[in-house]
Specification:
Blueprint (H helix, E strand, L loop, with lengths): L2 H16 L4 H12 L9 H18 L1 H11 L6 H22 L1 H6 L5 H20 L9 H13 L7 H11 L4 H25 L10 H27 L3 H22 L1
Helix pairs in contact: 1-2, 1-3, 1-11, 2-7, 3-10, 3-11, 4-5, 5-8, 5-10, 7-9, 7-12, 8-9, 9-10, 10-11
């Protein structure tokens, strides 16, 4: 993998991990356009590096929130931070269950399934439209909401369904405050990313040749910088109810992908 390829993949991962346009779907499209099947979904090491970069960017953006959560937890009391952490854990259960027991089925959905990607991008577009039309409230995330948002995150494992788009849209449709929805959506994925990284590393994700070190560094830096920008930008967009712009984008890319597969492949 060359440095330019790594740069492109890093930018795609950093942007699409937070913007509601589906990182998995765009990586599948990128693999096809670049004509290389050994890109992130196929390369365990690059996957670990890029996801590590976006996890780090999330931690940086929400560093104050994370510090408050840890301070509250170390008080060893039933406080607001403990309750929030429990809701995060609850939200992780559906995706963790799907990942553990249906990983083989999930893998078959990747590897050039562009028709599926296109269809799921249209689903993402519909979700974003509904979310943009939802009323603004001051509602907090309840335990039941955490389960529903967690199910949305599990469904977003499908290539083409945006994780941030699905979880934020579901939160807003449940009438949760938009700022809380974005905060919960981005924080709930950090443990899952770190868990997936650990799983990949245990499976041999650290094995690499010196020749790929520079591309890995370039990919990491690109994903981290674009991740910080995209995460910060997305929080502002959610507050201002601007998700419909991404709905239009997802619809265009989805229709273009489906049309290409049906008429040119």
């Amino acid at each position: 993998m060359g440095w330019m390829e790594a740069l492109i993949l890093g930018i795609i991962q950093g942007l699409t991990e937070f913007l509601p346009v589906s990182s998995s779907g765009h990586l599948e499209i990128a693999k096809f356009l670049l004509g290389d099947n050994s890109l992130p979904e196929e390369s365990m090491l690059m996957t670990v590096v890029l996801h590590g970069a976006t996890a780090l960017s999330t931690i940086l953006v929400f560093r104050k929130d994370i510090m408050e959560i840890f301070r509250g937890l170390f008080q060893f009391k039933w406080n607001e931070e403990t309750i929030f952490s429990l809701k995060i854990i609850i939200s992780m259960i559906p995706a963790a269950f799907v990942g553990l027991f249906y990983n083989d089925i999930i893998e078959t959905m990747f590897g050039g399934q562009l028709l599926l990607v296109g269809a799921m991008l249209l689903v993402t577009a519909v979700l974003l439209v509904f979310a943009d039309r939802a009323e603004t409230t001051d509602k907090k995330v309840s335990y039941f909401d955490a389960i529903i948002i967690g199910i949305a995150q599990a469904i977003a494992i499908l290539p083409g369904i945006s994780r941030s788009g699905a979880t934020i849209s579901t939160s807003v449709i449940l009438k949760i405050d938009r700022s809380r929805a974005a905060r919960f959506s981005f924080l709930m994925v950090v443990p899952l990313i770190l868990g997936k990284m650990t799983q990949d590393l245990m499976a041999g994700g650290l094995n690499y040749e010196n020749s790929v070190l520079i591309p890995l560094i370039i990919g990491f830096i690109a994903a981290f910088i674009t991740g910080v920008l995209a995460c910060t930008w997305m929080i502002k967009l959610v507050k201002n109810a601007k998700l419909s712009y991404f709905a239009i984008y997802c619809a265009i890319v989805g229709l273009a992908t489906i049309s290409y597969v049906l008429f040119f492949v």
